[in-house]
Amino acid sequence: MKLRNYSESKINENIDAMLADVIYYEALDRMPAGRIVRVNAHGMSRNDLFNKIIEIINSFK
Asked: Would I find Transferase among this entry's keywords (predicted)?
């Protein structure tokens, strides 16, 4: 990515995305797919993200 002149923040964003994919697919190997949820937090405040996660957790009850 450095050879493509990506900014440091773009490189970190791509690394975060790759790590999230690894975690997601490892979770799929261990749990039923219906119990795994991806949340797109892009542009969300911490408070909105927290509320969304609580909403998702409560939906499993």
From this structure: yes
Provide the residue ranges of all domains of the chain, joining segments of one domain with +. 2-60
Whether pLDDT at 58 is above 80: yes
Most distant CA pair in the chain, distance: 48
DSSP one-letter code for 58: H
Q: pTM value?
A: 0.65
With b for 16 or more beta-carbon neighbours within 10 A and e for fewer, the 10-30 pattern comes to eeeeeeeeeeeeeeeeeeeee
Tell whether the model's pLDDT for residue 17 goes beyond 80: yes
